[in-house]
Amino acid sequence: MRVAQAGRLSNVRYDIRGPVLRRARQLEAAGHEIIKLNLGNPAPFGLDAPDDVLSDVVKHIPDAQGYSDARGIQPARQAVAQYFDRRGVPGVTADDVYLGNGVSELIVMALQALLDPGDEVVVPSPDYPLWTGAINLCGGHAVHYQCDEQNDWNPDLEHLQSRIGPRTRALVIINPNNPTGAVYSSEILLGMLELARRHGLVVLTDEIYDQIIYADAVHSPAAALAPDLLVLTLGGLSKTYRLAGFRSGWLVVSGPRADAADYLDGLELLANMRLCPNVPAQHAIEPALGGRVDITHLLQPGGRLRDQRDHAWAALTAIPGVSCYKPAGALYLFPRLDPEVYPIADDEKMMIDLLEQQHVLLSHGSGFNLPTTDHLRLVFLASVPVLDEAIGRIATFLSTYHQ
Description:
By secondary structure, the chain is of the alpha/beta class. It is built from 15 helices and 15 strands. Strand 4 and strand 5 (about 155) form a beta hairpin.
């Protein structure tokens, strides 16, 4: 008997973990060593979680054997609320915090509670593709607004305005942005929030990289800029706190709740249906957010992340026909291959060809819902010698590559 996938999956894509990654696994199984610069996963690169956080989790294992409150344990939710208070977001209490098995689960929950079939959500292009996939999975339609590479990948407000229609329910903001590394200015954010205000949109803001900021960039929480709007802010321990495997994230509701009571009831229903988030991992949140973790030494000149960003950026942009915005935040470079030099029709095929010829694993730009095939994403978490080796192989590959 043939068993087919559900029809609702026909419009759901998550290409950054699709054919390219499958081919990498096949090559590894055949004995090839692959340089993996495709995922923002700190642990494989030796960026370990702070001992203080891990020791607290171990200490609380005996207390983590039963279910917690469906929203998460009180001390962790209180720590998140206090963190948002320090970030200038008014009126957030532990009751406004939902903990989840990573931000990914909470994104899906937030959209499931909001969307009816045919509803639209405006999403940046490029985006982290889980957003587009989750919107479509929930019966909605992701409508992409352009971010302008010539303006440091900031959203194009005029184009965003043109993408809002009568079925639009929500605006997604990804700041700092994955994959571009852009950190939006307050002026751009205020313009986006004004459009949400004018059109009565819920704001969903993905701020998982809010502490990974370089040079003079400043991250402004959307919720702090628009206390009069219903804003759902998503964050977690995966990146700043190097605990990707703990799958420990949060969703914070701010702004006027009275008119959103029905929606919030739906969100609580979905939280109840999954019983609770992983309880041991929740015990990492209070020590992580309580002031014992400081990553500024990684981000300043001489710090590991800052130096790896600068080194990888310089090496990539030294390749003929390759240009790249120097990211102000996050963990990624998103270089452009000049189509006059590299006429690429299929960037996913290019990534597979690079993998097979040079054993370097990257992600293709169209996998982030970019409408062109002239970008790729490289994670700069690896050490400088590994980055040099990988980028050298990329240069060798591009010097002779044709489609």
